[in-house]
Amino acid sequence: MNERLPAPGGLALVEALVNTVDLESGRDALDTAEGRAPFGVAERDLADVRELRESLRATCLAHAGHPPHRTVTPLGELLARVPLYVSVDARDGSARLVPAGPGTLAARVAAAVAEALTAGTWQRLKACELPECHWAYYDRSPAGRGRWCSMSVCGARVKMRRYRGKRA
Ligand SMILES: [Zn+2]
Q1: C-alpha 123 – ligand 1 centre gap (Å)
Q2: How many domains does the chain have?
Q3: Where is the Zinc finger CGNR domain positioned along the sequence (predicted)?
């Protein structure tokens, strides 16, 4: 949530996409033109974008050791449709994977995942374990074992439930 810094590099795009919907209220930023603008998606692409979003959320949950929140198309299947190629900068020899076709959102996500793999940050993009939240966040904890998007909000809710459960 707000207390966290955005995920590093291209992962910020992935994190922002996953967090376009509030699962508890059902409010979806992609329903509005302003909400879609940062992702460069048109209304006709919404079904595909939402499919990608939930596949990403399931992957973020997997990074935290949780099963998928619902049946999703495997992320690998979606990203396999957007080939990347190795681009080498002639000036300094640096290389990176870039989309081979049009820079669709799926292609940008694939490039962001490739960048995160080399940076070693991919596994730290997680989803909050609270079912009504499942918000994506970047786990900056030293051991990489964070469980909630916000300790003070979702962590507190889980602890409160456990406390109530014990007294019942
Ligand atoms: Zn949460």
Answers
A1: 18
A2: 1
A3: 124-167
